[in-house]
Amino acid sequence: MANQREIIVDFGFDTSMFDGLTIAMLVAGLAITGVASGVLAGLLGVGGGIVIVPVLFWVLSLFHFSPAVTSHLAVATSLAVIIPTSISSMRSHNKRGNVDRPLLNLWGPAIFVSALIGGIMSKFIPGAGLRLVFGVVGLLVAVNMALPKHLVISDHLPQSGWINRAIASVIGFVSSLMGIGGGTLSVPTLSSFSFPVHRAVGTSSALGLLIALPAVAGFIWSGLEIAGRPPLSLGYVSLPAVAIIAPVSFLFAPLGARLAHALNPRYLKLAFAFFLAITAGRMLLS
Q1: What is the pLDDT of residues 10-58, one digit of tens each?
Q2: pTM of the full structure
Q3: CB proximity list for 113: less than 8 A, separation 6 or greater
Q4: How far apart are the C-alpha atoms of 175 and 235, rounded to whole Å?
Q5: Cellular component per GO (predicted)?
Q6: How far apart are alpha carbons 56 and 249 in whole angstroms?
Q7: Distance between CA atoms of 284 and 83, rounded to whole angstroms?
Q8: CB-based contacts of 276, cutoff 8 Å, min separation 6
Q9: CB atoms inside a 10 Å sphere around CB 252
Q10: Whole-angstrom Cα distance, residue 54 to residue 113?
Q11: How many degrees, rounded to 5, is the angle at CA 75 between CA 59 and CA 198?
């Protein structure tokens, strides 16, 4: 037709890559990510986000999403997945009596508030800043996991409530910017104060929920008016990715919790420390 005009819709990414095979591989990859994140959340207490964030970052980069939003999307989506994973893992550990309620009451409010601040501040932190936080802290966590003995600062937690709240605030704030649950930082921190490892892992699963909920709210608010996000995104949270990863991660978290009580995780920790060091290094170089 003479007056016919070509209408071009710009989705902000390369739509030509979304053929049937690519979509199937993407779904399978995200499902495998869910399995790994769920098992690791229960087994090592490191939080599944330490796996989800780099995988989502690479996937989003592969599909040529804007570099300005890929890091934020990976972190926020990981935090959204952590919500059901933490609930599942927390319930499993609570049945075994490994959720320390007094510590949860002491650390919980500070972690909640600091995680909310982290989510809100993400609006003003560039993607390179989030990758820097993930890379540096990830390398430190990898080194800590690879050491034959964990650092021991004291044979008990600090007596001061303010010092405890300060520790919790740092854990909540940094975790929210990394897109991880509480276990990655809280388990080694508690272990350094001679806290029983199984109770540290169990309590950290509950702390992960107190990190993820407010941080997700902050990331949703921060990303509401940002251009270049994938379709069906709520702020910086990719709902399709959450819909794929979260159910799988939720189902496999109890398996990790059971394995934590049946296996010596030393060799698994070494393997994961190696993986994490490579991942953190790549994030720093991205």
Answers
A1: 444 555 556 677 778 878 888 888 888 778 766 765 667 888 898 888 8
A2: 0.85
A3: 169, 172, 214
A4: 19
A5: plasma membrane
A6: 15
A7: 27
A8: 50, 138, 139, 141, 142, 145
A9: 24
A10: 25
A11: 110
